[in-house]
Amino acid sequence: MIKKAQLPLQTLNLIVGFAVWVIISSLLPYMREDIAIPADKVAIITAIPVVLGSVLRIPVGYYTNIFGARIVFLISFILLLVPVYFISEATSYSALIIGGLFLGIGGSVFSVGVTSLPKYYPKERHGLVNGIYGLGNMGTAVSTFAAPLVADRFGWSATVKFYLVLLLVFAALNFLFGDRKETKVKTSLSVQIKGVYKNEKLWLFSLLYFITFGSFVAFTVYLPNFLVTNFDLTKVDAGMRTAGFIALATFMRPVGGWLADRFNALYLLIGVFAAFTGAAIVLAFSPTIALYTFGSLAIAVSAGTGNGVIFKLVPQYFNKQAGIVNGIVSMMGGLGGFFPPLLLSAIHSMTGQYSIGFMLLSQIALASLILVIWMVYQNKLSLSSEVFKKTNQGILVTDAKGIITAVNPAFTALTGFEEDEAIGKKPNILRTDRQQADFYQKMWKSIKQTGMWQGEIWNRRKNGEVYLQWLNISAIKDETGEDIRYVGTFSELAESRRKSG
After folding, report:
1. What is the pLDDT of residues 406-422, one digit of tens each?
2. Which of 9, 27, 13, 297 is closest to 146 using CA atoms?
């Protein structure tokens, strides 16, 4: 019963954590009525909570493996009581900055579930499970939509205090229903980091999540104030539109995970970043609220789907280091939400418009698209290399002149010739006198006419032993039909020792 409760409990935990994380951005229009906040500091004050919420994701993911999700969620919610109360009593810009920094603890709890929940489910369901957990992003929509409605009636300070009750309730729920017997991993943090930091896929996933989750966070914190100041919408209307963006992106996250469980995740990311690039271009040139809405919703679909797909890939490539890798990747996603609002604000202060910033976003998305295509290509090369190295059949490759250019480990095991002893030589280093010259003439005639030959042939090992093998030779042609290399695959026939003896 307790194990089955972990997915819904941890998803609700994430909703609460993210709801607290965006308190300031959700209520900023109301706070500005009571607290003097310079216009050029608005982007900073909304981005500050993202910093700690991003950086803490590495140790939070690590300690989840050490102590379990129950303890980490419980401690996080208790610690959040302090900055939430501090913000509710804030009377200055600096107080909001200090309190906002520690609100980041709410964003850091994302690493808990993506590290803990895969332990309860088979690998083929990890995409969907992480996607469902990602519905916790809805917490930002809850705050963005509900907080202004409550603040209209009770004021922003009382609204912030309401979150104290919410945190206490969920701290108690985790104490009572958290899994005390969750599987723990005791590998040290330094050992885990050393095991992954040189892996290029870690940094590629980090970049991709920097774009997808970063855009989700950035739009969440920047849209309410942007819509009010640039399209003259009411605060409640801006909050509802932002909540719509969050809801759509959040809903698409489990859809992305579900799709990644069934289709090639990298191909899905190609579609994600192609759509993201187009949507960012629309935002760069959108003169009306209608076009801006279309572009923003397209970003929501792309970002949400991408978030789900990426966290299917992490445990697929880093099963044993999932905690630390989840922390690093999710940290980069959080930081992706920190920089865009600052960049957009800086560009707007210099140029008076946001178009250049959105065009830059489209170019970054385009670069990510190219990197994903490159990764697909690299995976195909890696697969070919793995098959070449691990197949039990001997393989040798020659150029058009018959000079050996590559052999696999099975070639060495069967013939006794090491790779450096074979490369640069011709296959006649294996020849015996068991076949006459006309045998080889017929072989090459078949290769020239049909592109292949197969059959039994006697060959010699390095130690002089003669053995019978089954040999396949295929000609590899270029686009003009000319032979550019030959590939031979062979295996020893069982009766060779009896016949040679």
Report:
1. 999 999 999 999 999 99
2. 27
Distance CA 254, CA 250 (A): 8
Query: Distance between CA 120 and CA 126 in Å, rounded?
Result: 9
pLDDT at 397: 92
234 and 327 in a single domain? The answer is yes
CA distance 402 to 418: 18
Same domain, 456 and 366: no
pLDDT at 320: 66
Closest alpha carbon to 342 in 327, 356, 357 = 357
3-class secondary structure per residue, 194-246: HHHCCCHHHHHHHHHHHHHHHHHHHHHHHHHHHHHHHHCCCHHHHHHHHHHHH
Q: What pLDDT shows up at residue 309?
A: 92
Among the listed residues 260, 258, 219, the one whose alpha carbon sits nearest the alpha carbon of residue 242: 219
One domain, residues 383 and 290: yes
Phi then psi for 473, rounded to 5 degrees? -120, 130
* Average pLDDT of the residues in 262-270: 90
Contact present, 20 and 38 (Cβ < 8 Å): no
Residues 6+ positions from 190 with CB-CB distance below 8 Å: none
Is 410 inside any structural domain? yes
Taking alpha carbons only, the member of 110, 290, 322, 291 closest to residue 216 is 110
One domain, residues 381 and 401: no
Tens digit of each residue's pLDDT (9 = 90 or more) over 100-116: 889 989 988 988 998 89
Query: What pLDDT is recorded for position 164?
Result: 96
Q: Quick one: pLDDT at residue 222?
A: 74
Contact 329, 320 (CB under 8 A): no
Angle, helices 322-351/200-231, rounded to nearest 10 degrees: 40
Is the full-model pTM beyond 0.70?
no
Q: Which class for 466: exposed (0-12), middle (13-18), buried (19 or more C-beta within 10 A)?
A: middle
189 DSSP 8-state letter: H
Q: How many CB atoms lie within 10 A of CB 312?
A: 24
Structure confidence at residue 497 (pLDDT): 46
Structure tokens at 47: 């981005």
Instruction: Examine the domain organization and report whether 344 and 357 are in the same domain.
Output: yes
Structure tokens belonging to residue 277? 């690039």
Instruction: Using pLDDT thresholds of 50, 70 and 90, give the confidence band for residue 483.
Output: confident
> Do 395 and 416 have their domain in common?
yes
Number of structural domains found in the chain: 2
d(CA 164, CA 178): 20
Q: How far apart are CA 477 and CA 486, in angstroms?
A: 9
d(CA 348, CA 453): 69
Taking every pair of C-alpha atoms in the chain, what is the biggest distance, in angstroms?
A: 100
Q: Does residue 50 have a pLDDT over 60?
A: yes
Q: Identify which of 154, 140, 32 has the alpha carbon closest to the alpha carbon of residue 93.
A: 32
Check if the beta carbon of residue 426 is closer than 8 Å to that of residue 400: no
Q: Residue 23's domain spans which residues?
A: 6-387
